[in-house]
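This entry is listed as follows:

___
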Amino acid sequence: MSEGSDSLRTSPSVASLSENELPPPLEPPGYVCSLTEELVTKAREELQEKPEWRLRDVQALRDMVRKEYPNLSTSLDDAFLLRFLRARKFDYDRALQLLVNYHSCRRSWPEVFTDLKPSALKDALASGFLTVLPHTDPRGCQILCIRPDRWTPSSYPITENIRAIYLTLEKLIQSEETQDGFPIRIKAVHGVNEPRIFKGIFAIIKPFLKEKIANRFFLHGSDLNSLHTSLPRSILPKEYGGTAGELDITAWNEALLASEEDFVREFCQPVPTCGSIPGGTLLPQGLVSDAQCDDSVRAVKSQLYSCY
């Protein structure tokens, strides 16, 4: 008899165990902080996140979801809920609003979120339309590089580019080091080699933007020295006047494809229709409706993003 068979023979089956002897059901793993001491301090100062209160805050948000939105199909894992608490500096009400808006946006934009997985976006990824640079900026922010000129309209629809952006943002916030909730907080937008008309358009819309948002846009044109005042040459690829070698999209594409199962589990399951959730229950006063989904996340059209 083989060693494996012998093992099967000597191990008691579940059926042979009495009810009191059955092993307890496995519980989902609890939250384990992966932040460095430096980032823990930064989170305390910038996000009001106190390690000693972290799980209490997560439980408070979880209880609010269960009480106010019992039909909302959402993950209630510690790590998932922490995204929204961090994005709203641990303000429970605002974190809950962000969570509901996030799911409303996913339902109201099925052409973007349905079947959102790396293998469904191979053409967009292979085009080099976007990638994430291997080095962070001096603040530790990840840099998302978007190159609109790499998109050929006859190759695939523009919605595939938007899907690729969302896919990338979702992947980025899986890491606590880059996590600040979703929609992700954009720390800076750097436009390089943008058309001249873009500056005129931005000058028109800038007065209507909040000062904090307007101050995060930097249009450099062809002046790479201007870009380097914000993003050092040491972290930029050769294409942007940097010294970090040529821009390589392979590593990031492989990282996304390696996360296929995570995206299938999160985005390829049946999503409840809007009609299955009472409108009054889902969206009380102060929350956006499906039709009012945050338009700002649909307008991602610059070339370099510095994201925290």
About this structure: The mean pLDDT is 77. The chain is about 40% helix and 10% strand.
